[in-house]
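INFO  loader      accepted 1 record
INFO  loader      residues=296
INFO  predictor   begin
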Amino acid sequence: MDFWPEFLASSWGKEFVAGGFGGIAGLISGYPLDSIRVRQQNSKSGSAFNVFRHVVSKEGPLSLYRGMAAPLASVTFQNAMVFQIYATLSRTFDRSIPSSDPPSYKGVALGGTAAGAIQSLIMSPVELVKIQLQLQSKTNQATRLKGPIDVTRRIFRQEGLRGIYRGLTITVLRDAHSHGLYFWVYEYTKEQLHPGCRKNGQESYQTMLIAGGLAGAVSWISCYPLDVVKTRLQAQSESKSAKYCSIVDCFRQSVRNEGHGVLWRGLGTTVGRAFLANGAIFTAYETALRFLCKQQ
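INFO  predictor   done
INFO  writer      dumping tokens
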């Protein structure tokens, strides 16, 4: 009965809960643009507006939220875990910094990189299910999947556990370096916008929104080609009839057939979504953390 009060009383518990709130805020605010991004990456569709207009007219506006149940079910734990691992490792990698001071930028970058690599173990199967649901057509009722559980069962039945983790390698490659950059840009930017806030924790909501949004945009630009390849690999439904047999093969075929521009298709949509979603993530995270510390 005393677990929850004791959990929230610890710094570990506060970071975990605040990270969960941040994840939910980011997912809800950015999911429609994420659906448009995935469709742009996996096809020869035109602009984001054309994709949006086509999807809404053919499948309805709620189709932009298709597949959200899978990441929503895991995003609280995933984001909470990332922020907690980052908070712990950012100090572990640089023990010369006193506990009363904020972690160094070196510790921030290394802690973020490690957190990104570890969270890929959760995000790879979640994003596989999400992408499969986002890309299925509403008009093809014969092969239509009902939800995340249905997709997971089909993949496991056809490909086994290996199929559930299809795309894990490239997810790690994408998330490790991008998370290191993500946390570094956030910490650096908010300090520039509000000098001294890393130590006194008095940054404004405007600072949180701008720093978080910029961190999300920069990190996504840095890993975007990898994300395009990951989307195409995870969009394949059956290993026996797969168009791409490896990361390198997917990269080569995509560039050969559609040019180098394919590696940046949907970037504008992604940057817009990243700024919006990650501004919401850090604002919700910092706000929840302040509230929990004040209550304590």
